[in-house]
Amino acid sequence: MSVGGLAGLGSGPASAAVPAFPDNVVVFPDRDFVTIEGYQDHIGEQGTVTVTRNGQVVGSAVGRVAEGDVAFEINHPGGVCWGAGTGFNVTPDIRKGDKVSIAFPDGASGDTTTSTGSATSHAARDGQTVKVEGTYGPDVVAGQAEVRIVNPDLTAEVGRRDVRAVTGGLTVAPKGGYSSNLEMAGGRFTATFVFDTLKAAQIAEATQVERFMSWQVEDGDANRQGLTISEFGELGGPGMGGCPAGPADVAPPRGHYSITRSVDKAKLAVRWTPADSPAGTPAVTSYNVQAFKADDTSVGARVGASATGATLAVDPAVVDYTVEVRSMAGTTMGVPFEPAPTTGSGELPADQTVPRLTISPAASGNTAETAVEASSVMLGSESAADVYVTTDGSEAVLGDLPGDTAQLYRSPIAITALTEIHAVAIDRAGNISAQAIGFYKPVGAQVLNAPTGLVATPGIGQVALKWVAPSGSSTAVTGYQVEASTVAADGTTTPLPVQPTVTTDTNQVVTGLASSTRYAFTVKALYGAAASSPSPAATATTPLASARVAITTGRWKNADTRIQGTTDQPALTSSVVRFYRKSADGTYSTQYAGPSALVAAVAPATGSTFDGRFRTSALTGTTNPGQVVAKLFDGSGNELGASAPFTLTSG
């Protein structure tokens, strides 16, 4: 742009629901590949597929529905690329917990939430037995999961190209050739395949791609809806030539910029409105600003990622400079920003014409006590001028240039809290309007205070949280939402793929956590559809657990309660299992029953089992305790591991 003178990204579709057969959204997260099945009442129409993570769009594409079982595919040969028809040119790295949605112009829609289940190691063989192990989260239902090993070479040995394992015990395959079983407990699974021939076992071991399939809904005809197929060993990224790069390789984003030159021509103020980096792509680390003369010599500056402008010292004798602004992600430089259009539509003013700034609604004063209620504030000018604004109380103009924190105005300013606005219009000739100053507050502003005093107490595989209910809010609290993240050694946090459920208590135990891991927690108070800001964070590091423990069945009745389960530890005579019920503070610190001895598991299973039966009212109590956990102790009384909470059934 020669001296003389922003882009946004829309949000994702509204929440849909798991499609009903024959429609389906099938997600292959390891290959970043999606299949849209059915939707035959939309043949020839275009459907928009969107991938969202924590409510933020990370990928999208438009496909046209074809006749047949498969409507269309994305990121797979014969299908369309991510970004097709949407301009969001990133192949998303689809992760556990991401939501993949499809929507049509008539409002028809459906979605699948990507399952947390996946194999964690390749198939391992011991003689004619092959095992596949992996993990899953609380979103996975044991009866709605299956493990497959796919290899066409298996057809000659077992009568089909794949072998399959589901829960329910070791079972002979319908066509023979092998028996299989899928065991799921405590967030870990083991699929066991016992083959009739050594050759079949060797083929299965050599496959090196293991599928864990899980589905959100199974209808009355056993159709699997909301299906995720995790393929351990497959690689993500563009699935065919010509598709856009994955998040790590996307160029930094381009925004819009404007220029103001001082009256003495010795300074050039450049201000920009950056575009957000798509979720999952490298963050902007800096901005590079250059002002070029006609002979291509230049002056420039490199400023930080939070900057929205830079002021360059230039040669007053040079009439025109060509300015270039680019965002940087590490050493990768993006394409040049585009010049921002002026706010007004008039011609460039004469040198002495001062632009007029408009602000709506008008401020009634410049103090917080006179704040005007507004949902948003709009700024403008009747002439070809750039409007600059601050919302932090700082000046919008300093001398004859925009203030240090002033930003180029592009859209109405949402008022969600008490806000002090300073605004000014500067035309391309350097004329400056009077600065507008005003305070604004939300319409009918609610006071939504956050919880306080959050405390985190770690235990094996879990953390117990307590907090103090907020006071002074203008609306009653309807619940609390805890948000949990892992904390890396450098202090960076990563949200858990599955967050704790909403609770109405002022305490909650977050279970299913890894051992010897640092976690951070915050809690928000919920006020109907609104929520407070998060509380200050509390951190805790779970102790090292040396044993896996799981309750498999449990039934309560007065004077006869029985709890059974498994552990990966050997059946040592000194080891015992005790059972604990939930205490008033949300922890499992009150012993309910036990001890129960360990019994060696029956081969081919490993580890041991426990079977605690308690036949007196003194042990069982006269009411069902609800949730209990099983804790394993060694002969010295050291806790080795604990199960996830298990709800006892009555009867």
Question: What is this structure, in a nutshell?
Answer:
It comes from Microlunatus capsulatus. The chain contains three helices and 52 strands. The protein has 651 residues and is an all-beta fold.
Can you give a write-up of this model?
The chain is an all-beta fold and 651 residues long. The protein folds into 6 domains: 6-121 and 213-247, no CATH class; 123-207; 256-339, Sandwich (Immunoglobulin-like); 357-441, Immunoglobulin-like, CATH 2.60.40; 452-541, Immunoglobulins (Immunoglobulin-like), CATH 2.60.40; 549-650, Immunoglobulin-like, CATH 2.60.40. Helices cover 3% and strands 44% of the residues. It contains 3 helices and 52 strands. The strands form 12 sheets. Strands 44, 45, 46, 47, 48, 49, 50, 51 and 52 form a 9-stranded mixed β-sheet that branches. Strands 8, 9, 10, 13, 14 and 15 form a 6-stranded antiparallel β-sheet that branches. A 5-stranded mixed β-sheet has the order 27-35-34-29-32, with no helix packed on it. A hairpin with a 5-residue loop joins strand 18 and strand 19 (267-273). Mean pLDDT is 87; it is low at 1-15 and 344-350. This is Fibronectin type-III domain-containing protein. It holds the Pfam family Fn3_assoc. Keywords: Carbohydrate metabolism, Glycosidase, Hydrolase, Polysaccharide degradation. Residues 105-127 are annotated as: Disordered. Residues 106-122 have a biased composition (Low complexity).
